[in-house]
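INTERNAL AUDIT FORM
Audit reference: QA-55
Scope: verify that the stored structure record matches its stored sequence.
Auditor: D.O.
Record contents follow.
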Amino acid sequence: MQDIIEFTIRILPYLIIAFTLIYLVHESFRFIKSRDQLMLENQKYSNKASAVTAKPIKDTALAQLQLQAAERFVLYLERIAPDRLVMRLHQNGMDAKMLQTEMSKAIREEFDHNLSQQLYVSEGAWELIKNAKEEMIRLISATGESMPKNSTGLDYSRKLFQTASKIERLPSQIALQYLRKEARQIFNR
C-alpha cells in the first residue's frame, strides 16, 4: 500500500502537467477553429463588397509589373547598342581583344541581371531580346576576329561602328520597337 501511495505522489505532478497541456492544446485548437470561422465569414462579406474592384486591382498590379519589365529591357537593349557599349567601356590603352571581351561580358552580365523579368513580357518579346543579345555578341566577336592582333581599342571601335552601320536594323532596334508596341498595348487595356 505504501508503494502505491509513493508511486501516486511521484506521478501526480506529471499527471497534472499532462492534463494541463491537454487542456491548453484543446483550448488552442478551439480558439483557432473559431478564429478561422470568423475570418471566413468576414472574407465572404468583404468579397461580396469588393467583388467589383478586386479584378482591376489585380490587373493594375500585373500591368505595373509588365511595364517595369518592359522598361528594364528597353534600358538593357539601349545599353547593348554598339555606340553605348563603346562609350561606357572603352578606356585609354585598351587593346581590341580586351575591349571585345569587356563588351561581351557586359552584355551577358546585364542580361543575367534582368533574367527574371522574362516572366512579365510576352514570348515574342523575350525571343527578340534573347536574339538581340546573341546577335550583338556575334557582331562583337566577328568584328574582333577580323582585326589584326596588335589593334587598339580605338581601331576596334571604328571597325565595330562601320560594321554596325552596314546593318539596316540591329536586332536590338527590332526588339526595342516590339517592346514599345507591347507597352502601348498594356497602357491601352
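Auditor finding: record pair retrieved intact. The first helix runs from residue 2 to 79.
Action required: none
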